[in-house]
Amino acid sequence: MSSELLDALDMLEKEKGISRDIIIEAIEAALVSAYKRNFNQAQNVRTNFNLTTGSMHVYARKEVVDEVFDSRLEISLDEARKINPNYDIGDIVEIEVTPKDFGRIAAQTAKQVVTQRVREAERGIIYEEFIDREDDIMTGIVQRKDNRFAYVTLGRAEALLPTSEQMPNEQYSHNDRIKVYITKVEKTTKGPQIYISRTHPNLLKRLFELEVPEIFDGTVEIMSVAREAGDRSKISVHSDNPEVDPVGACVGPKGSRVQAVVDELNGEKIDIVKYSKDPVEFVANALSPSKVLEVIVNEEEKSTVVIVPDYQLSLAIGKRGQNARLAAKLTGWKIDIKSESDAREAGIYPVEEPLFSPEITLDDITVDAEEWEKDSDSVHESITDEDK
Question: Which helix (H) or strand (E) holds 117?
C-alpha cells in the first residue's frame, strides 16, 4: 500500500468523522480475512499496517511446544530457539508469512470488509449523536412521503415521521423545512432508527424555550402542557421572581413570541395561563377565556365543580368540549362545569350568604295609612319648630 492510502485515511477521518484507529483496525481485520480466504490458511495470524510507509505484513502466531502435532499452530522448542534463544515452552512465536502478491489480492478482497466496517463505525457515530438528542427539537427537511411515514433529513441521518405523529392540518412537500420533536432513537442492524413527532406536547414546550429567553434561562417555568395538535393548546407558566410576569413573558411584545410559535404550528391556537398551587385559582385560570364565578373542590376525588355565568357556559365548555377537556388535562383535575342558574337550582350556589341583601320589590312593601299619617305629622311639626 502506498501514500495514497494514507491520504484516503485522512480524508475519511475528516469527512466521516471516523477515528483513524477505527479505520486501521478495520483494514487489519480485512487483511486477516483476505489471507485466510485466498491462501487457505486457518492458523492464527496477525497483520501489521505500517502508518509511516503504508506497507503491510502478515505474521503467523505459533505456540512453543515439546512435541508438534499441528505445524500451522505449533512450533518446537528447538525451532523457536533458532529464531530467538530466549523462547521457552508456552511462548508465542510470530513468523512473517506475507505472500508476494498479497497486496493485489488483499486490495480486492478487503474492499468490501473495509467498507462495511467504516459504515458500521459511521452508524455508531450517528447513533451516539442522536441518542443525546432524544426529547429535543431539531429542524429537518422533508424528502418524501408515503402512506406510513414522512421521511425527514436531520443532518446526516434520515428520521421517520409516522402518520399518527403528523398534524392533521399540514401537508408535507419535498424540501419543506419543519421543526420536529425527537421521540425515540433505536439501534438496528440497518443503522440508527430515529422517530420524530409534530404532535407531541413537548414540541410546544421546546418551541417556547426557543422563543422565550426567560424560559430558556429558567426564570419562567412551563409547569404543564395540554395539546390537541393542529387545533388548540394550553400551557401553564410560573415564575418565582415576583417582578416577572410569566404570561406576559411568553406572549412577548405585541404578541410576537407566541405568534412565532403559532406560525410554526400553522395557526394552532395557544392559551397561556398562570399556574397556581391553589386548585381553585388554577382551574379558574385554565378555563380561560371564560369567566368563573366559583370553583368547588373535592380533594378526595380530585374533582371540581366550576360555576360560570349563564352566557359564558358554551365558552367555558368550548367547541365539542375542547376547552374543558384541555383545562382538565392541564390541571390534572376533573372539571364539571355548571351554569349559574343550574347551580342555584341545585342549591350549590352561592356557597356562602351573599354580601348584599336581595333587591326589595314593591310586592314586599306594605303600608299602614294611620301610622303613615302620624309619622308625617310629627315630621311636619318638627320641621315647623326648627324654622321658628
Answer: helix 102-131
- Give the HSE-up count for residue 7: Cα atoms under 13 Å, Cβ half-sphere: 3
Residues in the chain: 388
Please name the residue that has the C-alpha cell 422563543.
211
Q: What is the pLDDT of residues 46-66, one digit of tens each?
A: 877 776 766 777 888 888 888
Domain holding 118, by residue range, is 3-129
Cα 94–1–110 angle (5° rounding)? 75
Tally of domains in the chain: 3
Cis peptide before 289 (omega within 30 of 0): yes
Give 143: exposed, middle or buried? Use CB within 10 Å, 0-12, 13-18, 19+.
Answer: middle
- Secondary structure class of 219 (helix, strand, coil): coil
105 — pLDDT class (breaks 50, 70, 90): low
145 and 113, same structural domain? no
Residue 25 belongs to some domain of the structure: yes
- Domain identity same for 23 and 113: yes
Phi, psi of 189 (to 5 degrees): -65, -20
* Cell 320589590 -> residue: 361
Please indicate, yes or no, whether residues 89 and 151 belong to a single structural domain of this protein. no
What single DSSP character describes residue 148?
Answer: S
Residue for grid cell 373542590: 297
* Gap between the terminal Cα atoms of the chain: 136
Per-residue exposure over 189-219, b if at least 16 CB sit within 10 Å of its own CB, e if not: eebbbbbbbbbbbbbbbbbbbebbebbeeeb
Q: How far is CA 190 from the centre of its chain?
A: 23
pLDDT in tens, 210-250: 999 999 999 999 999 999 998 999 999 999 999 999 999 99
